[in-house]
Amino acid sequence: AQSVAQPEDQVNVAEGNPLTVKCTYSVSGNPYLFWYVQYPNRGLQFLLKYITGDNLVKGSYGFEAEFNKSQTSFHLKKPSALVSDSALYFCAVRDISGGSYIPTFGRGTSLIVHP
Amino acid sequence: SQTIHQWPATLVQPVGSPLSLECTVEGTSNPNLYWYRQAAGRGLQLLFYSVGIGQISSEVPQNLSASRPQDRQFILSSKKLLLSDSGFYLCAWSPNGYRSHGELFFGEGSRLTVL
């Protein structure tokens, strides 16, 4: 079985400050992990993924995510937030040994960056 | 490069009327195809997925059906819409088999309002 949790419905950060959007997961085997961003009335856009190797993954728009196996987390980070980063962010997980190719999505976290 | 098209973008329909949302993918062959519904701008609900022509799996029993008449075409339908069918519908694709780690690529969405 695979599941993912985004413990924060909303994250507020000032422009220029670092941001973190949290994600924790649960799988039976090893995970593939993903982050997506959704702007209002748009589809989801793929940001980055963790497959294997380096625990720090870099993606689009200056975002990065850190895989922590001991804490079963995959938090999304950016060193300096922009107002244009304000959007809905989704974490997703796929259990490699689970037999399903369909990822499970979290409920989403709304990121609000204040000018 | 691959692209996904989804239409119509916006639809307002009376209760009891039929529905047809269409999605096509270009630039790839034999993709996995998905229909999701997003209510209230938050969580994603997987409705249907397909691994090939004529092969449809339903995740949630409801008033909707899906068809895949061609390799890169996925259609979401209803014979009689209910008020509860209102929402934001998202089509997505992923590479088939070993080419995919599970990341999905989404269309721009179709907003359905049932009155």
Number of strands of chain A: 12
- Using a beta-carbon cutoff below 8 angstroms, give the protein chain pair with the largest interface and the number of residues from each chain: A-B, 22 and 24 residues
Strand content of chain A: over 45%
Name the overall outline of chain B: globular
Helix content of chain A: under 10%
Q: Helical residue percent of chain B? A: under 10%
Strands of chain B, total number? 11
Rg over alpha carbons of chain B:
14 Å
Report how far apart the termini of chain B are: 39 Å
Given the helix and strand composition of chain B, which structural class is it?
mainly beta
Beta-strand proportion of chain B? over 45%
Number of helices of chain B: 0
Average pLDDT over all residues of chain B: 92
Task: Count up the helices of chain A.
Answer: 0
Let me know the largest β-sheet of chain B.
7 strands, mixed
Rounded to an integer, what's the Rg of chain A over CA atoms? 14 Å
Q: Name the helix and strand elements of chain A from N-terminus to C-terminus, one letter apiece.
A: EEEEEEEEEEEE
Ranges of chain B where pLDDT stays below 50 over 5 or more residues in a row are none
Mean pLDDT of chain A: 94
From N to C, what is the helix and strand string of chain B?
EEEEEEEEEEE
For the biggest sheet of chain A, the summary is: 6 strands, mixed
Question: What keyword list fits this structure?
Answer:
heterodimer; A: 115 residues; mainly beta; six-stranded mixed sheet; 52% strand; B: mainly beta; four-stranded antiparallel sheet; 56% strand; globular
Describe the 3D structure:
The complex is a heterodimer of chains A (115) and B (115). In chain A, 0% of the residues lie in helices and 52% in strands. Chain A contains no helices and twelve strands. Chain A has 115 residues and is mainly beta. Chain B is mainly β and 115 residues long. Chain B is 0% helix and 56% strand. Chain B has strands spanning 3-7, 10-13, 19-26, 32-38, 44-52, 55-58, 65-70, 73-78, 87-94, 105-106, 110-114. In chain B, the strands form two sheets. In chain B, strands 2, 4, 5, 6, 9, 10 and 11 form a seven-stranded mixed sheet that branches. Chain B has a four-stranded antiparallel sheet with strand order 1-3-8-7, with no helix packed on it. The termini of chain B are far apart. The chains are: A mainly beta (115), B mainly beta (115).
